[in-house]
Amino acid sequence: MPVGLFRVCLLVITAIVNHPLFFPKENGTVPENTEEIIQKMKEREESLRLEQLRLEREIADQEATQKALEKAAVVVEESKEEKVWWDMWTALSMVIFLLIELWRQDFQEGNWQDTGGEEDDMAVLGKAFKGVAFPDKAVLASFYEKRILGTTGDMARMREMVEGFADDLLEALRSVCNRDADMEVEDCMGVGSMYENWRVRKPFVCDLIVPFAPPEPYCFCCQTWCSGDSFPPDEQGYGTIKVCRTDEDATGCICDKTKLGEDMLCLLHSQVSSTRPSSEMEDLLCFKNTQYLDADQVMKWFQIAVTKAWNRISHKYEFDLSFSLLDSPGALKIKFKSGKSIAFNLTPVVQYENSDVYFISHFPRSSLAADIPSSTHWFLTFAVYERRFIQLVSKTLPANACHVSCLQILSFLHGKQCSLTGPSGLTNYHLKTVLLHLLQARPSQDWAPEKLEARLQDMLKFLEKCLHEKKLYHFFIGNGKVPAELGFPIIFQRAEPLNLFRPFVLRRDIYRKMVDTFHEMLRNMSALINEYTVHIPLAHTNGIRKEPL
User: Fold this and answer.
1) How far, rounded to the nearest angstrom, does the alpha carbon of residue 174 sit from its chain's CA centroid?
2) Quick one: pLDDT at residue 259?
3) pLDDT tens by residue, 161-175
């Protein structure tokens, strides 16, 4: 019974729930447009799938870009570290190289500066001295007394005669020149081996320099390679000479550098004074269309002026005067009726500011200026200071010091060797430069007369070192130890050292010839000296071996 009642109740409840009045048709669980909804759902699903693919691609691209950036950053960081290490290694290598180079130079300089005293100097000579028999003190003393000492008196008489004639010739030159248009010639000065008392080879030739200046209102404005202007390496040691008016500075007025315009006028210079005709500058011996003094023009002017001067005074003398060399304006020769002759050089120069440094137009009998860049470039000569330095140092040396004797002997040997094998690039000026360096490096007592042999070996060792390194520095240029008593211009002391052997670095044929001549001179040294030496007892010559010529 209860079960039946329950079934009836369940049936009634089911009928009530499923009655159409309780659930209208539009709220039915299954709509009528089912296919349309399914289609839209499929389209939505497809669009969501495509969007998912696009997002996946973007994420993949971003991840790839991030990885590339991270990789690039790692590479840059590694390169920076490598560069830092490389820069540090390069700097360290340069420091080590400089230290080694400085040590090497100090060590090599210390070799020839060693004052070994009584030690055997032959033990420290270079390779070129192996097997060379060096004359002893007795042989050198005899050679010097017999061959060199007797020439001193001849040089003094010749200097006196040449200087007197040169003064007379220059006085006549001034009288034939136009004081308003021609160059003004000053008194001459003697320089070189004849006036430093170490010339030994004949014929004796006096070297005289003659400073000259332009007529008023002009002046010379000099520029050197170390004055701040840029000069190429092959022009070191040279300078230029600009002809300016005295109312200008060396660089000229600003009106020469800028265009003022037709309606503007410089208050310092009129149009006439600022514009110089080309012919006027050529009359002042300048290079064509420039204001720079031309050495070739100076040579021509000086030759003509000397010729006119000689024609005026020739009647006073019983000899003839002629130019001995066509390419040297002042290479003169006096010819006597007896057939004898005297040669001397009268060279025009320009004074550098208020010093005794001079611009020289050419070097007689020398290859120092063989490759002048142009005729407007003038070489600087320090010959006056060189003579003064030797005189100054000589006052501090012992009596009868051997410094001049060393240079005379070495100059004689070199000249004799050149007469046998021909001239080389090595000159007497190079030998004098070696002596100047040693005079400054060695103490005064080392130049006593009994130390002639040791000092001569020092000069040969120093010269051998310079030839090996192809470096022989000018004594004054770049030398901060020049005595203040000389009054030497500070601009040249602060300049970079000038290597006199620099021209031979690129000219290997001349350099080879120079080295061969030096080695031949060493091998023939004993024979050359003994040829002009009086007989010496055998006891004094033990151990001396003559080398064949």
Assistant:
1) 38
2) 47
3) 999 999 999 999 999
Cβ contacts of residue 386 below 8 Å, gap of 6+?
A: 191, 196, 432, 436, 475, 476
- What's the pLDDT band for 3 if we cut at 50, 70, 90? low
Q: Give the Cα separation of 202 and 204 in Å (integer).
A: 5
Bond before 364 cis per omega within 30 degrees: no
- Provide the token pair at 104: 């090497």
CA distance 82 to 77: 9
How many helices and strands in the chain, by DSSP H and E? 15, 10
Q: What is the rounded average pLDDT for all residues in the chain?
A: 79
One DSSP character per residue, 405-471 reads HHHHHHHHHHHHHHHHH---S--HHHHHHHHHHHHHHS-GGGG-GGGHHHHHHHHHHHHHHHHHHT-
Cα–Cα distance between 116 and 12 in angstroms, integer? Answer: 144
Alpha-helical runs (H) found in 278-382: 278-283, 295-313
Strand partners, 418: none
> Which pair of tokens denotes residue 185?
């010639």
Q: For the whole model, what pTM was predicted?
A: 0.70
Cα separation, 460 vs 435, whole angstroms: 10
Round to whole Å and give the CA distance between 389 and 382. 11
Q: Which two tokens stand for residue 262?
A: 């037709």
What total number of domains does the chain contain?
A: 1
User: Which residues, other chains included, contact 319 with Cβ-Cβ below 8 Å and sequence gap of 6+?
Assistant: 334, 335, 336, 337
**In-domain check, residue 501:** yes
Residue 262 lies in a domain: no
Per the CB < 8 A criterion, the answer to whether 202 and 253 are in contact is no
**What b-and-e string marks burial along 328-337, b requiring 16 or more CB atoms within 10 Å of the CB?**
bbbbbbbeee
| Token code pair at residue 89 | 């290694």
Domain membership of residue 81 (yes or no) is no
Is residue 547, in this structure, part of any structural domain at all? no
Which CATH number is 459's domain given? 3.30.460.90
φ, ψ of residue 334 in degrees (nearest 5)? -95, 125
> By the 8 A CB rule, do 206 and 194 touch?
yes
Residue 203 preceded by cis peptide, ω within 30? yes
What residues make up the domain containing 135?
123-248+282-534
